[in-house]
């Protein structure tokens, strides 16, 4: 199972299984996964989580720590 990694318009990095059609971001926007530009593909949910965390840190310079209650 591959996981697709992409960004919401609000800037958050999200991931979902490649079979997922829509994904609701924590900002409230529902994304059509098939129409998003895929940034990366991960081979497992663990890898997807790590990649998302790395990308968030790159984007926010590690100054913002996302917590589990946002997931
Ligand atoms: Zn969003």
From TrEMBL:
<feature type="domain" description="DUF1922">
    <location>
        <begin position="2"/>
        <end position="57"/>
    </location>
</feature>
<dbReference type="InterPro" id="IPR036304">
    <property type="entry name" value="MTH1184"/>
</dbReference>
<dbReference type="InterPro" id="IPR015166">
    <property type="entry name" value="DUF1922"/>
</dbReference>
<dbReference type="Pfam" id="PF09082">
    <property type="entry name" value="DUF1922"/>
</dbReference>
<protein>
    <recommendedName>
        <fullName>DUF1922 domain-containing protein</fullName>
    </recommendedName>
</protein>
